[in-house]
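Why run this: before we spend reagent on co-expression, it is cheaper to look at a predicted model of the complex and decide which construct boundaries make sense. The entries below are exactly what would go into the expression plan.
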Amino acid sequence: MSDIGIRIDPDRLRRAGKPEAIFAEKKGVDDLIEAVKLMLEKCGRALVTRLNEEQLSALEREFKEFKILKNERGRIAAVFTRKAFEEFSNRKCRCEVVILSAGTSDIPVAEEAAFTAEYLGMSVKKFYDVGVAGIHRLEEPVRYIRNSRALAVIVVAGMEGALPSVVAGLVDRPIIAVPTSVGYGVAFNGLTALFSMLLSCPSGVAVVNIDNGFGAAVFAYTICRIAFRDA
Amino acid sequence: MSDIGIRIDPDRLRRAGKPEAIFAEKKGVDDLIEAVKLMLEKCGRALVTRLNEEQLSALEREFKEFKILKNERGRIAAVFTRKAFEEFSNRKCRCEVVILSAGTSDIPVAEEAAFTAEYLGMSVKKFYDVGVAGIHRLEEPVRYIRNSRALAVIVVAGMEGALPSVVAGLVDRPIIAVPTSVGYGVAFNGLTALFSMLLSCPSGVAVVNIDNGFGAAVFAYTICRIAFRDA
Amino acid sequence: MSDIGIRIDPDRLRRAGKPEAIFAEKKGVDDLIEAVKLMLEKCGRALVTRLNEEQLSALEREFKEFKILKNERGRIAAVFTRKAFEEFSNRKCRCEVVILSAGTSDIPVAEEAAFTAEYLGMSVKKFYDVGVAGIHRLEEPVRYIRNSRALAVIVVAGMEGALPSVVAGLVDRPIIAVPTSVGYGVAFNGLTALFSMLLSCPSGVAVVNIDNGFGAAVFAYTICRIAFRDA
Amino acid sequence: MSDIGIRIDPDRLRRAGKPEAIFAEKKGVDDLIEAVKLMLEKCGRALVTRLNEEQLSALEREFKEFKILKNERGRIAAVFTRKAFEEFSNRKCRCEVVILSAGTSDIPVAEEAAFTAEYLGMSVKKFYDVGVAGIHRLEEPVRYIRNSRALAVIVVAGMEGALPSVVAGLVDRPIIAVPTSVGYGVAFNGLTALFSMLLSCPSGVAVVNIDNGFGAAVFAYTICRIAFRDA
Amino acid sequence: MSDIGIRIDPDRLRRAGKPEAIFAEKKGVDDLIEAVKLMLEKCGRALVTRLNEEQLSALEREFKEFKILKNERGRIAAVFTRKAFEEFSNRKCRCEVVILSAGTSDIPVAEEAAFTAEYLGMSVKKFYDVGVAGIHRLEEPVRYIRNSRALAVIVVAGMEGALPSVVAGLVDRPIIAVPTSVGYGVAFNGLTALFSMLLSCPSGVAVVNIDNGFGAAVFAYTICRIAFRDA
Amino acid sequence: MSDIGIRIDPDRLRRAGKPEAIFAEKKGVDDLIEAVKLMLEKCGRALVTRLNEEQLSALEREFKEFKILKNERGRIAAVFTRKAFEEFSNRKCRCEVVILSAGTSDIPVAEEAAFTAEYLGMSVKKFYDVGVAGIHRLEEPVRYIRNSRALAVIVVAGMEGALPSVVAGLVDRPIIAVPTSVGYGVAFNGLTALFSMLLSCPSGVAVVNIDNGFGAAVFAYTICRIAFRDA
Amino acid sequence: MSDIGIRIDPDRLRRAGKPEAIFAEKKGVDDLIEAVKLMLEKCGRALVTRLNEEQLSALEREFKEFKILKNERGRIAAVFTRKAFEEFSNRKCRCEVVILSAGTSDIPVAEEAAFTAEYLGMSVKKFYDVGVAGIHRLEEPVRYIRNSRALAVIVVAGMEGALPSVVAGLVDRPIIAVPTSVGYGVAFNGLTALFSMLLSCPSGVAVVNIDNGFGAAVFAYTICRIAFRDA
Amino acid sequence: MSDIGIRIDPDRLRRAGKPEAIFAEKKGVDDLIEAVKLMLEKCGRALVTRLNEEQLSALEREFKEFKILKNERGRIAAVFTRKAFEEFSNRKCRCEVVILSAGTSDIPVAEEAAFTAEYLGMSVKKFYDVGVAGIHRLEEPVRYIRNSRALAVIVVAGMEGALPSVVAGLVDRPIIAVPTSVGYGVAFNGLTALFSMLLSCPSGVAVVNIDNGFGAAVFAYTICRIAFRDA
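The model came back. Tokens follow.
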């Protein structure tokens, strides 16, 4: 246990196939920097999610000697030691994941998923703003998926959350659905989309927490590890 | 006020374009028969919804001198005096309404809507089991609607309630969405479908209460009255 | 897909009778302007809802060469190219919609509906602050509706949301009910009004999402298209 | 504490103006009879609410030597010793309460209120089936109330629960609103009606628990005690 | 209908025994002042609830020629023309209401009730911080009520909302319970207190909306009008 | 893992101070008997909760060679081998727990707690029907607790759940509150009582799940183990 | 569309990797048999979930010429034509899935998952009653998973739903969590377990609807198809 | 009752074993200081919870003549007169409580509990960041507890709230569970953690309100008083 009470679990990725990440929301800048330092020390790299602008600037100032990758729309960043970054740069992306989002407001969550997937060594193909209001917009991504070797499809949607149902009826890959807190009135900050996705008529859809693009990518990564374990 | 406390409002259809109907659920057989009698006396005909088998048999016994139309799947029946039935039989169905249902379990509610629409003098075209799990099944109804003169489309769906969103993106008629209490777990007896429909990405969808096929048909009828007022 | 991930669907109005609109809430000013530009390019005009003051000023600065109509109370604006505005100015308003609001706090939502209806070529008659606390205030609008050729009545109410029930018992036009997030305590940001409206004793009321004045007007427009298709 | 764990509080009516009653729902017949016996012993009379048919028959058998008043629709009964019944019969009803109910399905709750009010020595005037779907049906009860000396108006309604709001805008007596569990879908067993009543636009409405006709009458009785304390 | 859409209902107090008040929350300062002016014109006085500091200052500036009474803790004020204030000052307070509050955080709501009651011509006796955590603190108010001629007791409580139950078991006056949004976690902004009060074991408690001190006082006033109608 | 999938954890009581019990609700009679047999084999005794009449009879038939203790009101029973029963009979009850219940309908849950406590070797003192509607009924149990050596007080209440708050303000023992599913309307099967208890104004109240008399007794037992560990 | 309104989608398994199944709950026996016949005709085999005893007997009578596999605890059965059964019997199970359940009451849902997985050609390894109350019981399944080639772990749990979190921290396979409706009080028919699983601290858990063992197996199957696509 | 309406209950600690504390949230600085003064006058010391920075500074300025202990992370402070502080400093800590927290974001609530426990004269041992994602991190605290004489274990957790279940299965002390409002999406500000804890599979867990570290410590203190009453 560190001074601020953190116990880093550096073995988790190897043991359980899940990276530790730092959830920045509501964290003070000092605690955040302390946590990143501990992670760098133990693991050589640190992934930080749900950053606001002030926190991101602070990280950039504090870790300017390190390599930082970031995605502002997705409010996510990764800090690497030089050595870790070299390893990261030389990785081979054998796994592909496809990410679909229903509306433009869902893009930040989709970007969190995309960034995380790439951080974990996967390649990503994105199709955004392909919601069910104009079903013809789905033709292109469906054709792509059918012809691709993508291991999983992450579908991000708010409002009525209908996109995963439709996609699951059209393609045969595991569908990881991410409800978003987009919408007003009875959207209930994503709860309706969540329930809608859990009720998807075609089975074969599994769901993660509202706005949890990070978790969807980690789940895709566990599929990836299995599919390529002996390759 | 009758002995059992009912005040029939025989002028409602003329004044407000809405028929009075008798909601049979939880009503005792005696009260139900009393209510039908009062309606027949004042209006010459009575529409009864949410009938169980016992209630329906009782009506058939009690009103065997009258003309009864019924739909067992939709749990709905209408009792007419001879004179009222003659009028009803000679009506001209100038209005058409199209009724879509997502799954086979949604059919009872769709049938309630269909029966009510016909009782109100509309003609009905049905397409059932055309939910979003197999989106290709929508091609036929969409083509039909586009080429028809239908005044409104009633879309009945439970579970994730995604069908109205998809249909509303494809055709230009008023979409009256009816959530059903079909589903389990987070279906919450139709609440998720209801919220989903209210959040429909393409606007132009309006919603009625869960399982309220009757209300959807009445709403379609108010459109019908307007569209044909001078014809 | 544009740089910011938007795919405009310019054919939607023709295909599905629903205009695309830009929902400004939570959008950054740059993304908003980009979206408006794309719409103008594809459709010649753009409707923007839920604008805050800063966003509206930014639009006025950015599009000062264009024609802008706005309604500050309704937080809504439309940007037109000169050519599109000329067409808009010469439209004939054959459809009339009547808009009622229960309390003064419901007026912004009513104004959003009114602006949208006019943007879609309908004429609008408004009666505000006619809630059920003083039922005599309803006499004037009811008389007006009965004598008018209005195709639909949009009823906007928060709190207990009782107005649509009462109006539906008095006039024969389709009632499109819009619950608002007005109220405190058990108003639950409009949820009680929404449920209340769905339970309206007289049938023939259909409901849209909380505060969705825009959607109510679009729904009225789909009725309008049908009623005047051959006229 | 009796053998079955009951502690009768015979002083409550005098001390706190509220009668003790026995809530029969889910009680075994033996426990119910035991409770009535204890009440008769301590107070000379016992009021029993929410009786089912079997329980009522059992009471009539068991207490055939006593005087029993009952209302089957309201599922309520009172058992008196001869002496207590004589007193009851000679009471003077100085207080009047008016009871309105919105729909026919709300009548059982209204009858529970009416029976309780009479048991407590008030006189009752009833107007049933006067819901807002046909607002003209309210004219008669409103005229009656305005011209009467009624101390309070109990308004019983399920579904959207709009009746108390309308009545409160028309008459100046305390309005005690009783939501009922009538309705389906988003009626949520009376919760929507309850919230609706709490949000009544005209103030001056107070609410009791769902289906609690008994409680409404007791509340009216506390007003009665105050109004006539020195008379 | 005024320019800002308000229709004042000056006859409501006479007709329905309820004063109109202006709910200031979320109102712009200009709209608020306009509303007060309209009220003064029609009724000679205006009651304004839920004022913030800025709104109150604005009222004091704008109406400095008028007489203003205010209660900052209760966020409530009244503006009078000279003539109306003279009448108000000469009123006789024949009705007394007792107001209890459970915790110190409930005091603002209790003060709103007290101010409203005095505005309506009642006299008020207050006992604050007498919650159930120290039941001995209730002795003094209970003794007072029993010996007083108070017509009603308003009980204000947040958190678990247990105070009205205990008080209703001890005194015989009508108990008007006001839940407050005080508390955290499962207090749900007053919802638990509301439900708790509706479930009060001793009957004879009626409830108003969360934080609605104003409504509780208006309800007490309707009792007052009845009790003193011929005096 | 047995044939029916059960893995008995015979060490739990020693390791974690909690007995394993068999929750009979919804269990088939065969599975229930199988489970009891496994428990008897591993531990010499078995506690079974939430028994219906049919299940209890089946146990009595099946285990007539064994010693059975039961409490029908509490729907709970214990089966012992002869040896285990002898040990049980010779235990010394050094710990006392006091159990209070608010209403008569709460007694079954209180009895489940009492039976469990005795099964775990504690002595029990009960006070039933001492709810807050008649606060004077609390005097006797409060005096008893203050003068006793009771280690904990279990307070069982449904409806508004106010009793634990009042008791916690009067005595200094740990208060273990058990909400019950007693009540109707907004009682929500015990949820309001649960929330009410969690919000108890005086701190020092901890809560277990709705109707979980068993859990309350187990919790009291963990206190007992600590208090008497070296005695 | 068949006479009873069903449109079989025989291409779904090939196109979308998801089998069609017949959900028997609330279906009449005639409709159920009709649906099975249609499936057999189009696909040669039919999977039926949520069967009650009566429905299962009816299937066995009606399809006695066919091959039926069933699991009564899991309330699930499959009907095959001879030809389809031969194919099924000769399949090679290259994919393994491990199924864990927390308590004995969760076993029916786990069995539904197991049966479905085998129906889809996977091999299944089960560990039941390994909930977190005795964490040592997890050692065996964790060791098994780590040493196995299992592609996914299905974790079934009701009550507090904590098992998936703990397992996800210990093994690196995709965790498909299935909440069950086991529990009482605040279990809310599985909702708490569902939310708990969505909040799993270690990421990499995805969730399906409450009691949806079938859906979990289908999701595992989509992973299986990907992992073995070229083998 | 003071000028600001507070009635201090100085006898509560002696009578009921619970200290009075001042809940600072939403209190104005003047009211807060007034309350502290009253407490100091009556009891010699005052505990203040939920302080923000501004309030804490104000206390430090106002009471600089007094002794102040504070914990900024836990947002809690205590003010003592010199005499009271001397007594406090010389107390003997015979009771030990162990505090566990699941994640780093739960630490503020854990610190509130720790500070309160020490204020009440207990000694505290803390283990933070020992959540179920890495179950091996629990080994150390479990070994500690088993070998300690700790009277109770306070377990603080947000998100899925699984930690108390696991700990309760491993140690035999009373487990006081504190859900925290940590998490997003379906965490519902701590509600899921709360329900999860109430459903803990091993019994012997009791729960306090969300974020109520103070209440958990007070509850532990009531156990402490009992365990050491004669020592």
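Strands of chain B lie at 22-23, 45-49, 67-71, 76-80, 96-101, 123-127, 152-157, 175-179, 205-207. Chain B touches chain D at residues 1, 4-7, 9, 12, 23, 25-27, 31, 35, 179, 181, 189-191, 194, 209-212 (CB under 8 Å). Bring this page to Monday's planning discussion.
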